[in-house]
From TrEMBL, chains A, B, C:
This is Ammonium transporter. It is a multi-pass membrane protein. It comes from the Bacteria. It comes from Magnetospirillum gryphiswaldense (strain DSM 6361 / JCM 21280 / NBRC 15271 / MSR-1). Belongs to the ammonia transporter channel (TC 1.A.11.2) family. GO terms for molecular function: ammonium channel activity. Residues 12-401 form the Ammonium transporter AmtB-like domain. Keywords: Ammonia transport, Membrane, Transmembrane, Transmembrane helix, Transport. GO terms for biological process: ammonium homeostasis. The gene is amtB. GO terms for cellular component: membrane.
Length: 426, 426, 426
């Protein structure tokens, strides 16, 4: 903050923030397409509301926890116009907040896909507040800031700090492992796993919406990764190239391992992108391609194991996608980032292992603790009746396609309820 | 235009223009999701066509009305390559036109949502031509240019000009109040308000499309607001931060006041953004949060009053959203922009009140005059039969889901009509 | 590559690459909306997979064919950090690759819309590999590079090189004429043209998705065109203005000629944009408007002739759109770019004609050769049974709306198949 920032820096970080903001629409549609129609509205409202609550909590609490900065100064200070202001010109610090807030809000957006179709609404907002107000900022402050002397310790041990350029671990693994804890606390959807051991398929509702979500996430990801440099002089075409090739690797491996399944191939692109975040600034493009390819295959394998063998009902496979591929990316950065493998160097496999493990443990422990406490106190799960009816009518009093509900006669009861209030009553 | 503009300025304004262009897709899907299926095609074609006609009229007429500039010079002039050209290098003036043209086209896009489901197509294009050729440019020229000595007068009265950084009043209030005039001239949809006083709910068709529209608008809005600085040196992270927090405020208040309704919460985000446009460059972030929160609540309240009590059949609630929240934002700028409330100052509540009132009066008067004249001459409303059949088949000879129409047997007549021509006949 | 590139250049080209990447989502949804529901999944997977394979082949082969550059150097070289590296700082060359890779991948994306609903999956990926590894790079290398002395010859003949600023010919005409060859080799969809001469309409499934695709393409196109300058100092507001007005011209003419049909008007916008690519940097805005207007009308006329008279079953009309309008744009650049018509000059009608013809011939010949060879060897067409069932179930074992398939009882067989594996089995 002591350096003078130019308008170009502000624009650079702003564009990243806008692109990651757009990614939240991607999270929303990925979930809309994957869940059943009776839970689509809930998916949309959850993502938008989680984003709003996250931003608010991060503004008033989380950002201070991570970096010790408060924005409760006069506006003239915030834009560096007053003598001795700690803030840079043109409001650079404010767009940096915007950028990082969109990262913070990814934590509940990731979890949302795991707990879909049976979680209560308000307890989830409380979980979001705790996670974005404390858990994520502490992790972020450790890795990207100076909190708890974490990077000092890692550097003392391995000669280099833990490298997580764009958050394979800080954002994705953390979010994915918190989600695993949440899913374990919540239990599977009604009827998903029968007592006789049979696994009942719950098919997605809408592949085009799923694909739309994936596309929005893919495109926005280039802001997530490239703008993590946070200054235009630090921009690196290598980050863009590596993100591109990791995405490509994820698509191709998930296409093959996932036998042409549209859900797998559209999530496979994301798996590659999750895995490349950490090392996108140091890997060789071919290393990024391999990393993405491994991630795509890992996602498909883990998703199928979760759903069919381990009976972990992680609806969108967010633990497989963000949790496992994120952790894999944290470690891959320590391998494909090495100069001997064509990378730029400055990374150490041991530092990456310890850093990644830290993120995984923090995530899982927080997930179990936060959702366990909420379960013990206010409950986190819809009643069986509400789950059967769907989160849309149970929580939002309207379905995703209200006109269809009113025009089909034998859905009269639902329609009457749906049209009783809200914009559906217009 | 006398200063030399750099490539960075051109890029900056261009990015804003592209983002606001994208917002028109958002307007389209917000309307597609809110209207009934039989009017979805019409919503899409209206927005795209209104955009095209607006741009054309603004290019040949409106821009000259607002700023006295014509583009009917050789291309070498336009890019500042000829001696004595009045145009800056790199075609800066051309991207500025592009940026402002996307604002101008927002006027019919706003109105479109109010008059949905029963307006004729061609008269609306005539209204668009008058509004974008004259009404909007005069307003814009008064506030952002030097037309009619408006800002001179305001400054003489209050010491400072009327402040409307990104158009809470010039764009949103103007458009929203024109829309109110149009809706009053047009009358409610058939069957909406029964003679016995009963109000019949007409439910939206597709919440995911409504949400998609809202997301596209939200994301593009950062171009609408930040790029209103029109030069990269003037970029302000404060504008981005304030837009973010106003959006967040709108989401949270509409969630609560609107009791979790997906239509309210996705429009609530927009309400916050509408209200923050005017003062986003001078308010404190907490002021922006409060402004957005008030706007979200105001939208929900006004929407319900319009629909249920006042029986104003403004389908998407565009008067509530753009008209009222825009006006509220014009005034809020004069309060939360004050230095005593942490703002940057340079604004005056009186100037904001007079400026806002001017926009409101201009809008409502123009709306009544333009749509009243068209009603008296060529008619602005579909026949009852066409309205019942839907604007899609009546105007475009095809529905939104032609394959479904042809496969359902008892829809044979519609299908035959739908497949008689156009790309549906392919 | 000998000049030092700034971060601003890297950002500039990166933004173009991101926008053209997004256009591929547009290609996907344009096809999803136009084909029948039973082929929507296939449309989505094809576009994503074609993009991945294209990028991979272009990375390892195509880029070298076009420009003689390989990226198989250590990362430190690629970002210009090593002594004597041939690569510019900040990884400029890597984002340039990214930008051009998204162009290369447009070739199979264009073809995809022509061969929709009856083509095999894997042979198409082989065609993609040949086209993006050899055919496109050779064309690109001739026009934008120094391959085969093409531009030298044109310049010797006409005094100026063939001008194709953003690829009306190199990308669109080439892709469109390859697609014509592919469509001719593939034959019409089953039941499209009856033996008795009757033409059976196959209506599109989803106009909102078609419109969404068009909007994404329109918005991304400004990256396609403006960022073709490849350096921020070369940015030209004229390119943006001309793209805007050509789009507007295409919308308005297709609205009128296409009698308000939503498919025509949303494709008409694209027709204008295809045609303006070549000359967007040299035409006068009014010339661009006329060019776009002609293209919109040409598209509607050619689409109807193809479908009804010539019985060429080009599903999305990609030959009409990209092939014909692209060629028209190549020639229009030589007319409306002339100084006597207000343009910037430096173009020659003869050079444009020869260059355009070269692209057309290369495209059609390659299309016939590649798809003819594949047809003769492995076959390029689905079995009648698979085509009837739809490419989704035949190739991907899942439909676009799996939940609906399982809930409708008489679709039980499909549902059982759909839910047997993949994410649909979740």
């Amino acid at each position: 903050m002591e350096v003078t920032r130019t308008g170009a820096d502000v624009l650079f970080v702003l564009l990243g923030a806008i692109m990651v903001l757009a990614m939240h629409a991607g999270f929303a549609f990925l979930e809309v397409g994957t869940v059943r129609k009776k839970n689509q509205v809930n998916a949309l409202v959850k993502i938008l509301t989680d984003f709003a609550v996250s931003t608010l909590v991060y503004f008033f609490v989380g950002y201070g926890v991570a970096y010790g900065i408060s924005f409760l100064h006069p506006a003239a200070d915030l834009v560096g116009k007053t003598e001795g202001s700690a803030f840079a010109a043109n409001g650079y610090d404010l767009v940096k907040f915007f950028f990082l807030a969109t990262f913070a809000a990814a934590i509940p957006a990731i979890i949302s896909g795991g707990i879909a179709e049976r979680a209560k609404f308000w307890p989830q907002l409380i979980a979001t507040s705790i996670l974005v107000g404390l858990v994520y900022p502490i992790t972020e402050g450790m890795v990207w800031g100076t909190r708890l002397g974490f990077q000092e310790t890692i550097t003392a041990l391995f000669g280099v700090p833990f490298h997580d350029f764009a958050g394979s671990v800080v954002v994705h693994a953390l979010g994915g492992w918190v989600a695993l804890g949440a899913v374990l606390m919540l239990g599977a959807r009604r009827g998903r796993y029968r007592k006789d051991g049979r696994v009942i398929a719950i098919p997605p509702s809408n592949i085009p919406f799923l694909a739309l979500g994936s596309w929005v996430l893919c495109v926005g990801w280039f802001g997530f990764n490239v703008m993590s440099a946070q200054a235009i002089d630090g921009i690196s075409g290598l980050v863009a190239m590596n993100s591109l090739l990791a995405m490509v690797g994820g698509i191709i491996s998930s296409l093959i391992v996932g036998r042409n399944d549209p859900g797998f191939v559209h999530n496979g692109a994301l798996a590659g992108l999750v895995a490349v975040c950490a090392g996108s600034d140091v890997m060789h493009p071919v290393g990024a391609l391999v990393t993405g390819g491994l991630a795509g295959a890992l996602f498909v394998w883990a998703f199928e194991m979760c759903q069919d063998k381990w009976k972990i009902d992680d609806v969108l496979g967010v633990w497989s996608l963000h949790g496992l591929c994120g952790a894999m990316g944290g470690i891959a950065c320590g391998i494909f980032g090495l100069e001997t493998l064509g990378g730029l160097g400055g990374v150490h496999p041991g530092a990456q292992f310890v850093g990644t493990l830290t993120g995984v443990v923090l995530g899982l422990a927080s997930g179990l603790a936060v959702y366990g406490s909420l379960r013990a106190t206010m409950g986190i799960r819809l009643s069986d009746e509400d789950e059967f009816m769907g989160a849309d009518l149970a929580i939002h009093q309207i379905g995703a396609y209200p006109e269809d509900a009113t025009s089909v006669h034998d859905d009269g009861a639902l329609a009457a309820r749906a049209s009783a209030r809200g914009m559906g009553a217009a």
